[in-house]
Amino acid sequence: MNNFNVRNNIVDHPDFVAAKSAIEELHGWQRESGEVSGLALVGPSGSGKSTVLKAYRDQFPPHDELTRRVIVILYVEVPSAPTVKSLAEAILLAMGATIPPGATGARLTECIVTLVEGCGIELIMLDEFQHFADGARRRLLEVSDWLKGVLNRLRVSVVLAGLPSLLRVLDVNQQLRRRFSRIVRFKPFSTTEMPDLETFVGVAQALMTDMPLPCANLDQVAFIKQLHFATGGLVDYMCKIIGGAYRIAASRKARFVDIADFSKAFRIHIWDEAPPSRDPFHKKFNGIPLTQAGEPFAEAL
Predict the structure, then answer these.
(1) Helix H segments across 63-160?
(2) pLDDT < 50 regions, the chain
(3) Which of 2, 216, 238, 290 could join 295 in a cystine, given CB atoms 3.0 to 4.6 angstroms apart?
(4) What does the DSSP 8-state code read for residue 241?
């Protein structure tokens, strides 16, 4: 099997470009003026938020100086069912620090303040931040107060990313909401309008650029609709199903990737229990988007 990884092809689609430009502007203004601010990237799971964060982070790789490790951009994934303490620990671990045994949240906060300055961190990215909205209101109040206080001390810009529910964390603290008043939204690709349809086709073509096997003709309207139904117009699902279909075809030593390969990839990577009427690549598909309760693209609240 040829070494093909669809995720090696980062596609500069409009939402990706807008988000990256916003991060560049935020970071550049801090470097120029010393003024810190915040930015929130919100969108459904799989829409590309984490990809743009990591792509920008990778432009500034950590490096060692004589007396310290310099980390210009710090990327942190917020743990599931988080608390202020577990978030503080995640931030320290992302910096390569050792967690002091038995440390309180207050002590961890002091460690963060010291190390952020010592490592020369200019921008902090907190991904999957909506996890804080999953708990009780008391936790929302606690984390919003902690975040406001620690950011005031750190004097670095911050990017939050996650599902739209992350905005509930900001809504409980007016000062925090003002700091993250700039919001960039990621949306699934649509096929109802010509510009969106062209974008969706272009992204799919870009993801398949280096595929060693030919596949279904992307100029065929029927296939475009099938692919859109099967992926919800989300980049992550496009990567899963395109990469999966290729691996299935390659494993059977096929000369090309066919619709049956896409159907099997859909069941493996998207929805394993889909009946024929809900498999976009099956002849019995009923043509209704997979957005009902219990289906892959039901709206995340």
Answers:
(1) 84-94, 105-118, 137-154
(2) 300-301
(3) 290
(4) H
